[in-house]
Amino acid sequence: MKKIRVERQIGRHNFSIETGILAKQAAGAVLTQYGETISFTACATGPARPGIDFFPLTCDYRERHAAAGKFPGGFLKREGRPTTKETLTARLMDRPIRPMFAEGFKEEVQIQSFVLASDRQQDGDILSMNGASAALSISPLPFMGPLGSVRLGKVNGELVAFPTAEELEFSTLDLIVSGTKDAILMIEGFAREMPEDEMIEALMTAHKYVGELCDLQEELVAQVQPQKIDWQTPEPDGLADKLAAWHGKLKAAKQTEGKQDRADAVKAVKEEALAELIPDPDAEGAFSLASFGHEFHELESKVVRETILEGKRPDGRAGGDLRGLYCEVDLLPRVHGSAMFQRGETQAFVTVTLGTGRDEQRVDGLFEEYSKRFMLDYNFPSFSVGEVRPIRGPGRREIGHGMLAERSVNPVLPDHDEFPYTIRVISDIMESNGSSSMASVCGATLGLMAAGVPITNPVAGISVGLVKEGDQFTLLTDILGDEDHFGDMDFKIAGTQNGITGIQLDLKIMGISEEIIRATLAQSREARIEILKAMLTAIPRPRAGTAASAPRLVRTSINPEKIGLLIGPGGKNIRGIQEEHGVTIDVEEDGTVTIAGPDEESVRGALNRVDATTASVQVGRIYDGKVTSIKDFGAFVEILPGKDGLCHISELSNEYVGSVADICKVGDRMQVKVIAVDEQDRVKLSRKAAMAEAEGPAEEPAEA
Question: Which residues participate in Mg(2+) binding (predicted)?
């Protein structure tokens, strides 16, 4: 049992990788550490399943609350299903690793990663991403790594590697980049309208750190000296050569207009080839149906790619052209906002719901618990692509696409003090043929503006594809499903006219160059501006107010010392206001009071009560008070909720008063003026002073 450890300073701390002690029966296992955050990652492999036609890679990431010295929230004190954060991190691990395995390798591979210790400043996700690459690199598996992964922030105008949680609160950028020493493979980033030139600078800076992390892993591999399996791509069975006879027919079918018609034309060619090449699948020496499916798919890929490189896309567009755009708002009654965005055969139907602070989502994890006031949920029903599939909970893809759209729109939302609503957006994909997540960004923007959310700028998104053979490459704006499936890249960029708010790159090849990244960002900006113009024809700006069906919200601030007075004993006062006006009232520790109700009248009435309850008595001000008790020496008058003052018998009238009862009785309302507040906060009132002020100054006698 020998421990091997490598480390070097990257950013402000040492990044270390250690192996040799834990999980020695795994194919590869490492501990990664940065600061006081430690992640453990292991990989294992199993035999390929018969007939499988894809690489069965599974990545899992878990954050144990114990790593931060915490108990899980709720009744069950044990972690359950993966959280949204854990699911998103598992996707971040999977995406750059998948293209780095040898072609044709289809054995089961599983990667599991756990955060063992957290300093609540450094996130365990980046450690696990590097740990996954390191574990695979020292395993016998045919992994063509290593890969490095880094998070980059921009704090006070400076790019910072491995930013802390506190720094990310103020950072204008949250960028994750994975790649080899030579190229970038994966990007996931969100910014506050960052210009393209600044984004490229950030990407290239991140890639330098990626190279350092790859060097560190190579140092580990050199010490471990793993014995790699001798993987050889299976020899062809000759079926591909026979299928070549259908190359021309398939090429013509792939140029058919319309997704469904194109699919039908391809299906007809496939059935013809199958009938001729495998008339009897059970006959001795016949090609297997699995082999036929694989080889026909490879022929499809070859046809689509060579056609695109010839300058012909499946639907006839040029590389930089968008499909037809259609936008509409206010499709549904009663909901707080609704919109539809259509781009070609991709359609997002969006609804917006506005709520109060009580509707915020509480999020618990290794870091401090926080509230989310904006949520975007993405649904991808099977009918959107003409398939039959049971309805289940959201899968990894739906969670990932929803979060991409959510974080791309989030930078343009109004400040909570300006617009104190909780906002939920639902994007239902009604039909899909390429980049439904970016359609969700556009649809969400339209829906928010229709709902009266005063966003600072409209956001649009587009996906750009790539077909690359050798040094020749073609970029494809607004990719189709086929171009995504058979192409090399899905590069999604969302943003406003001012800059990028969201960026995501997925590749099927082992990296792209700076030249391709620059060209993609330039091409995507042109498309984004064109989409924004189309969106603004449907609704040019956010509505001036929210829908009549939306709750009314107002906010006010009170002296924190008056919170107890507003709430009252056992909540009596605040409960009374809520019941009288049919509203809900939320009070924060800093004295911020939010009132929500069904209409403006209810909310304003409650606001007046809150203001009256928490107001301070002002000397010289006249109040409309209510007599609460009568004494021989005067009357006690309630001038503010819970606040009485004494109007002495001598202050009840300018004339002689023999008995207080001659002037007023309990329950009467009277105008009184505050004439003094003593050191013990006792209020002295005067009815005669209020009467005199109401009558105005006495007229001076005319001169003789």
Answer: 484, 490
CB atoms closer than 10 angstroms to residue 475 = 20
Phi, psi of 380 (to 5 degrees): -125, 80
pTM: 0.88
Strand, coil or helix: 220: helix
What ranges make up the beta strands (E) of 236-357? 325-329, 337-343, 346-355
User: Given this model, what pLDDT does residue 344 score?
Assistant: 94
Is 282 marked within a binding site?
Answer: no
CA distance 443 to 322: 17
Q: Is 490 annotated as a binding residue?
A: yes
Query: Which among 186, 129, 121 is positioned nearest to 160, based on CA atoms?
Result: 121
Nearest Cα to Cα of residue 136 among 43, 57, 34: 43
Helix (H/G/I), strand (E/B), else coil: 422: strand
**Domain covering 4-224, topology:** Ribosomal Protein S5; domain 2 (3.30.230)
For the stretch 541-583, pLDDT in tens is 999 999 988 999 988 888 888 898 889 888 888 999 999 899 9
Question: What is the fold, at CATH topology level, of the domain defined by 239-309?
Answer: Arc Repressor Mutant, subunit A (1.10.10)
For domain 552-614, the question of CATH label 3.40.630.30 is answered with no
Tell me the domain boundaries of the chain: 4-224, 239-309, 325-538, 552-614, 622-695
DSSP string, 507-530: ESSS-B-HHHHHHHHHHHHHHHHH
Whole-number mean pLDDT of the chain?
A: 92
**Number of residues that make up the chain:** 704
Question: 552-614 with 622-695: one CATH topology?
Answer: no
325-538 folds as Ribosomal Protein S5; domain 2 (3.30.230)
Site of tokens 């939302």: 413
Contact assessment for residue 128 and residue 151, using Cβ atoms and an 8 Å cutoff: no
pLDDT at 704: 39
- Helix 124-137 vs helix 84-97: crossing angle, to nearest 10: 40
Instruction: Give, for 604, the enclosing helix (H) or strand (E).
Output: helix 600-614
Residues linked to residue 355 through DSSP beta bridges, in sequence order: 422
Q: List, for residues 406-453, the tens digit of each pLDDT value.
A: 999 999 999 988 899 999 999 999 999 989 999 999 999 999 999 999
CA 657/CA 670 separation, integer angstroms:
16
Structure tokens at 89: 């991190």
Distance CA 448, CA 596 (A): 20
Share in percent of the chain as helix, strand, coil (round to 5): 35, 30, 35
Residues 6+ apart with CB under 8 A from 545: 452
Return the H-helix or E-strand segment holding 404.
helix 396-409
Structure tokens belonging to residue 504: 């995501």
Which residues, in sequence order, are CB contacts of 103 under 8 Å at separation 6+? 233
Q: Are 294 and 53 in contact (CB under 8 A)?
A: yes
Exposure of 691 in the CB half-sphere (CA atoms within 13 A): 9
Question: What distance in Å separates the CA atoms of residue 603 and residue 600, rounded to the nearest whole number?
Answer: 5
CA distances from 24 to 2, 30, 42, 232 (A): 11, 10, 9, 27
Cis peptide before 146 (omega within 30 of 0): yes
Instruction: State phi, psi for 239 to the nearest 5 degrees.
Output: -65, -35
Round to whole Å and give the CA distance between 252 and 256: 7
